Amino acid sequence: MIHLEHVTKAFASGKGIFDVSFSVEPGMVFGFIGPNGAGKSTALRQLMGLIAADSGQATIGGFDCWVETKEVKRLVGYLPGEISLPGDFTGDHVLQLMQQLHGGDRKRQADLLERFPFDPKTKVRKMSKGTKQKLALVGCFMKDAPVYLLDEPTSGLDPLMQERFLTWLEEERRLGKAILMSSHHFPEMEKSCDRAALIKDGRIIVESDIHELIRSSRKQYTVEFGLAAQAEQFAIQVGATQKQQRVSFLTSDQLTLNQVLRLLTAYDIRSIQTATDDLEHVFLHYYGEGDES
């Protein structure tokens, strides 16, 4: 349903996206992960027909996103990363305008307002960031579209609203919607996405099933030794950090768990702990803790 094929869009600053390809099929939530400036929003704007690619092609539902942008926009519900709404409009006025521009089901709108409640009589300029986000979510999803492009959809939402959003997203996925979502919120990506792509400096560095992506990451372990001298010796062997009788290290292609276990048989071991696998560890694995975010 959503296809990017070798899309490149370069800006004068050197930023942009380069040779980006991926697909999102109906009934799939696809996560797009990367630090600020990595190219996530640029890719979504390509799909919305807001900017033209230098090369490659972006299509939704078989329509070219730049050449046939009107047809594409009929198929898509779009939530931009930066919510910009008329400050003197009330929530009701914004939703009425969206209804006129994009259509929308009244019953669906009422359901969304019940899930993401706010005072629709309040003017936008008086709304908090979270309230503006709820307004934008209702405006996006009240259009019962087959495709949704969501740029940081839970930004500003409290934990309860985040959970309600994930529940809504799962219901939409089960209805066969194709959903592309960029986010920095790793727990929500783990819970909601079927596949994910990590983008760095405008290039996709890995794309995989979300659970395979997590399983393939480096794992962190902490071993407690009976003696500090043993901990020091083991730390030297694996090139790890030592703190008294504890050594923490990451497994990798060069240091597998089997190799570590063979080394540990020579020592008095008190305990072995492993960090929970999560998407944040995957992110740090590919980007490095020293990279800017």
Automatic annotation (TrEMBL):
CDD domains cross-referenced by the UniProt entry: ABC_DR_subfamily_A (cd03230)
Pfam families recorded: ABC_tran (PF00005)
Domain ABC transporter: 2-226
Highest taxon of the lineage: Bacteria
InterPro entries referenced in this protein's UniProt entry, alphabetically: AAA+_ATPase, ABC_transporter-like_ATP-bd, ABC_transporter_ATP-binding, P-loop_NTPase
Keywords: ATP-binding, Nucleotide-binding, Transport
Keyword Nucleotide-binding applies: yes
GO molecular function: ATP binding; ATP hydrolysis activity
Family that this chain belongs to: Belongs to the ABC transporter superfamily.
Name of the protein described by the UniProt record: ABC transporter
Upper taxonomic lineage: Bacteria, Bacillati, Bacillota, Bacilli, Bacillales
